[in-house]
Amino acid sequence: MKAKVYVTLKPSVLDPQGKAIQHSLELLGYDQIDDVRQGKYFEISIKPSTVEGDARTAVEQFAKEVLTNPVIEDYRVEIL
Amino acid sequence: MKFGVVVFPGSNCDHDAYHVVSKHIGQPVDFIWHKETDLSGYDAILIPGGFSYGDYLRAGALASFSPVMNAVKEFAAAGGFVFGICNGFQILCETGLLPGALMRNENLHFVCKHVNIRTETSNTPFTRQLDHGLVLSLPIAHAEGNYVCDQATLELLETGDRIVFRYCDEDGRLTDESNPNGAFSNIAGICNEGRNVLGMMPHPERACEDLLGSTDGRAIFLSLARSIEAVEVAA
Lengths: 80, 235
Fold this sequence. Notes:
The complex is a heterodimer. Chain A is α+β, with helices and mostly antiparallel strands. Chain A has helices at residues 16-27, 52-67; strands at 2-9, 40-45, 73-79.
């Protein structure tokens, strides 16, 4: 079992890195781009003995408490 | 009176802070390894600058989960003085001892230069010897100093007189040009509601000797020492 956690900046927070990436893409001629937001992606392997519900509870908890700064970021968890 | 300087893997301004307390303030000071859990006997804890845990995950995030930070939280809750500089400010925000967060500089650069900051309040244990409005010249050296918080928090900081320093020009005017990192409302330093926890991005410990180009940082450490004396007298 694996967990995937996506951490993204809250919509209200400006993303200077995303803006810089967008600028570079535009320089390269990609003129279709409206906006770029940079985030983080975590892949977590879960021990096989773990029940899926327990895994989800644990991952949700540490995604919120460790992987995300709630002042500026949101998160989304997938269990596969 | 006794100071402690917390040392994380990757701290690199710990010796500067230690040097200032011992040589310029003339007070006893210890290094405190981040695995320590007992802060009894200390009057002030300094969280120094650097790149704790390589700034992995987010600047200051992993350090905020170190054992010593639980002790620092208890120390602060009991009224002890806690002073975070640069990475120390980031750690205090990640720990929740101070509100808001420090994001990547708006210009994306690591900015290393002297800046001017204006003293926004003398009503903290760290600024009692600084006049309101006094402009200090202090160095900054960071890539994540762009202070952000929500509007409600900003209002709380403003109404509570908790914005301690703001970036300004040499005459004390708050301008966009004098804001080196895009910080919300030119914020360079804030304190907690109890006023015993201060975090700031500029480095006063690097501005205590003529040789370093500025001695403006001294008044902050002297204020802190005076505040500790006041507590000792009251006890």
